[in-house]
Design brief:
The chain is of the alpha+beta class. The protein has helices at residues 24-41, 76-82, 131-188, 193-220, 237-248, 266-284, 324-334, and strands at 15-17, 45-51, 56-60, 70-71, 85-93, 98-109, 115-123, 232-234, 251-256, 263-265, 289-297, 300-306, 317-318, 339-344, 350-357. The protein has a 7-stranded mixed β-sheet, with helices on both faces. A 6-stranded mixed β-sheet has the order 9-11-12-15-14-13. It starts with 14 loop residues before the first strand and ends with a strand.
């Protein structure tokens, strides 16, 4: 399937239906938009069709459109999903059993260029729309696409938060178990000074691990929604890598060939790299040495995390092994409008590549 269009051959059972996965806030925003469109353009009906992962949802001021699934194959709605603009006159729309003097739609396009739906007006009065009115409809479509992406980003952040909390809770089990067992042993060996000192050190180490995990959780996901946004700043790559090295206690070789500036959220980029290292541990079970390398390529800053040393190559075979760490890292990098690839080289060598937009790219 083309990412920017719906392939009708592969979507014969695709249908438009009332929103099942949207939030009440998003539905409220849609209602506001369609009402504004109707009033601004003096249109009878306005509708928003929103493409989900495996379905398409529709919202309109015409309630009958929201009451039942509507098959889009070979319909006027399918044309709107396949074209940037559609402008038709004197058409009968079977889906709502109405004659339309005007049917005009504009596609909803994401920042990545993918068509995620369309905004349409249906007018039952015989009239001509001016070029300014058509431009206004296009502006409404842009606003609608931005609204959808805003809610999608909030949903992704919630997924990242949930995954991160689950992993953090799992990581906390070991130190809490250590604390529990050591406390029990202290009760039995309270008269042995050496054992008490040894057990006390274990308790202190376990306690430090608990607080380190909680501090990471707090920094990556602050309690207030305002601080939940990216705290963008110029990233010092060497400092970033050094901090990751200290947190993961890994032997690391740093090769920084990047002269351009990159901007991001220091704590979330740090967490993304740590999660990628955790992903490599899931695949390999053990990591002796790592190489952190950075360079620029086609307006992108590339950060490579690899156990292959200077053998790492971007043109290896892409690996699709799933782990919670990889899922968290991908969401954190997506927040920076970047992406991640995991490449398998020969034998047991793997490289994780983070691509981030360069400043001004």
């Amino acid at each position: 399937m083309n990412e920017k269009q719906l392939d009708s051959k592969n979507n014969k059972s695709e249908s438009l239906h009332h929103f099942g996965s949207t939030t009440l806030e998003l539905v409220s925003d849609f209602q506001t938009i369609v009402n504004l469109v109707c009033k601004s353009l003096n249109s009878t009906i306005a509708l928003i069709a929103y493409r989900n992962v495996d379905s398409i949802s529709i919202y309109s001021n015409e309630l009958s459109l929201n009451e039942k699934p509507i098959n889009v194959e070979d319909t006027i709605f399918e044309q709107s999903l396949l074209s940037a603009t559609v402008n038709l006159k004197d058409v009968f729309i079977n889906e709502i059993k109405k004659e339309a003097k005007n049917y005009i739609s504009n596609s909803l396009t994401s920042k990545s260029g993918e068509i995620i739906g369309f905004l349409a007006i249906i007018n039952q009065n015989n009239r001509e729309f001016t070029s300014d009115q058509l431009l206004l409809l296009k502006d409404f479509a842009i606003m609608t696409a931005q609204t959808i992406e805003k809610h999608s980003a909030a949903h992704q952040l919630q997924e990242v938060f949930t995954d991160f909390v689950h992993k953090t809770v799992h990581d906390l089990k070991n130190p809490f178990t250590t604390i529990s067992l050591t406390t029990e042993l202290l009760k039995r060996k309270a008269d042995d000074a050496k054992l008490v000192a040894s057990f006390s050190q274990r308790l202190d180490n376990a306690n430090n691990k608990v607080f380190k995990n909680l501090e990471r959780l707090k920094l990556a996901f602050p309690l207030t929604s305002q601080n939940f946004k990216l705290n963008l700043q110029e990233i010092n790559i060497v400092e970033l890598f050094t901090e990751v090295q200290q947190l993961t206690k890994r032997e690391v070789t740093i090769d920084n060939q990047l002269t351009e500036k990159i901007y991001g959220d220091h704590y979330r980029l740090t967490e993304a790299i740590i999660q990628l290292i955790n992903h490599l541990l899931v695949i390999l079970g053990n990591l002796e040495k790592l190489t952190f390398r950075t360079y620029a390529e086609e307006n992108q800053a590339i950060i490579a995390i690899s156990n292959a040393g200077y053998k790492e190559k971007l043109n290896g075979v892409e690996d699709f092994v799933y782990s919670t760490g990889l899922a968290i890292a991908k969401k954190l990098i997506q927040m920076h409008y970047g992406h991640i690839k995991v490449i398998k080289q020969e034998a047991s060598y793997y490289s994780c590549y983070i691509s981030l937009p360069l400043s001004g790219a």
